[in-house]
Amino acid sequence: MERSALYYTPFNLRLYDLFVLSISNTLAWRCPTRSTLLPFYLKHVKSSSAHLEVGSGTGYYPATAAVSGALSKTRLLTLCDLNPNTLAYSRRRIARAGYTGSIETLEHNVFHPLAHSHDRDVRGKYDSVALYYLFHCLPGAFPRKATDVFASVAPALAPNGVMHGATVLGTGVVHNWFGARLMAFYNKKGVFGNIGDSEEGLRQALEEAFEEWEVTVVGAVALFEARKPRVIKD
Ligand SMILES: C[S@@+](CC[C@H](N)C(=O)[O-])C[C@H]1O[C@@H](n2cnc3c(N)ncnc32)[C@H](O)[C@@H]1O
């Protein structure tokens, strides 16, 4: 398995929310989950009838959305990840959170085209596609890796759909002492691949792939949303 997905063992998944979503997001990346990332996520999933969660991790965002009622109109939730541990973990958590629609899982490398790689046709199927904390895990740099991922995933977006997400930038932002050390350690281990990821590079990839898009930087994290894919390569 790719190193970007390798470390999500059942044991590490139990520590993920505390270490990443609570401690690192607040103290290292300065982009708090509860006051910044979660409201951004909820705003975009609310009222979507079919949602695709790419890089599902522990399922914190969809599970919290289910508890808050933001998924009450969502009849289909598809979890896509390269690691079967995260798919099983997030699926269980979302079901326990009271989500009543159907949950499906796709074990899939996001660099490979999504539309044709499974026996289901996913083209134009989702009105919300989430990519949270995925890009900074992937090897390579912006714009290239984001262009490749957008080319794989954008065909799954419905005509009025929105793609949204967040990623820790590696360059062009200020990293505090804790963030700089954590980033260096994760990049050395291959958990992160974001040393060359800049806001400018992300903007280039979004401009290439979408007619409408927006990026906001909070601390060391870029939050992005995009609509109307330009070229559907599938
Ligand atoms: C840092 S976690 C993010 C989890 C969740 N989205 C969040 O924000 O809490 C990154 C996730 O991306 C998955 N992942 C890493 N590389 C991938 C790839 N090439 N294709 C699909 N998923 C991948 C990992 O297995 C993991 O679940």
Tell me the domain tally: 1
Compounds present?
S-adenosylmethionine
Count of extended strands: 7
Structural shape: globular
Mean pLDDT: 94
Which homologous superfamily in CATH is the superfamily?
Answer: Vaccinia Virus protein VP39
Name the strands of the widest sheet in spatial order: 3-2-1-4-5-7-6
Secondary-structure class: alpha/beta
Description:
The protein has 234 residues and is of the alpha/beta class. The chain has a single domain, classed as Vaccinia Virus protein VP39 (Rossmann fold), CATH 3.40.50. Helix content is 39%, strand content 23%. It is built from eight helices and seven strands, in the order αααβαβαββαβααββ. The chain has a seven-stranded mixed sheet with strand order 3-2-1-4-5-7-6, sandwiched between helices. S-adenosylmethionine binds next to helix 1.
Draw up the topology in text:
Layout: H1 3-6, H2 10-28, H3 33-45, E1 50-54, H4 60-68, E2 76-81, H5 84-96, E3 102-107, E4 126-132, H6 144-153, E5 157-168, H7 177-189, H8 199-209, E6 210-218, E7 221-229
Parallel strand pairs: 1-2, 1-4, 2-3, 4-5
Antiparallel strand pairs: 5-7, 6-7
The structure holds S-adenosylmethionine (SAM).
S-adenosylmethionine (SAM) is lined by residues 2, 4-5, 8, 55-57, 60, 81-83, 86, 109-111, 132-134, 137-138.
Name the features:
single chain; 234 residues; seven-stranded mixed β-sheet; 7 strands; SAM-dependent_MTases_sf; Methyltransferase domain-containing protein
